[in-house]
Amino acid sequence: MADWRLPAGILAIAALAGAGSAAWDRLRPPRTPRELFQRRCSHCHELPRMNQFGKRNMAGIVRTMRTRNGADKVITEQEAAVIVKYLEGVARW
Ligand code: HEC
What we know:
The protein has 93 residues and is mostly helical. Helix content is 62%, strand content 0%.
């Protein structure tokens, strides 16, 4: 009779739980430099593949994002320094 309600209810709860954890994940502050990079640098575009750039380019790229592309609204100077250091650390050349 009202059998359809059960699976629909379960699906709704599963959807809510999924949305809830995704929302929570966005609210939770980043805990590592890598997370900070992943979070801040995917704000305006897809997370860029930074391993195509060299160590010497990283500071300039992050600076350009903040001075020309408006990333200073999203990334503080302190966060930028942490991200640059992280990117320089993972750069392959
Ligand atoms: C406030 C928005 C914003 C934030 C935050 C942001 N960017 Fe960008 N980024 C842009 C815009 C605008 C462009 C140029 C247009 C495009 O390519 O989409 C761009 C382009 C890029 C490019 C492509 C440049 C190229 O020629 O290949 C790279 C790499 C990049 N961003 C890296 C970063 C990194 C690293 C961070 C984090 C430190 C970051 N972005 C954060 C707005 C942003």
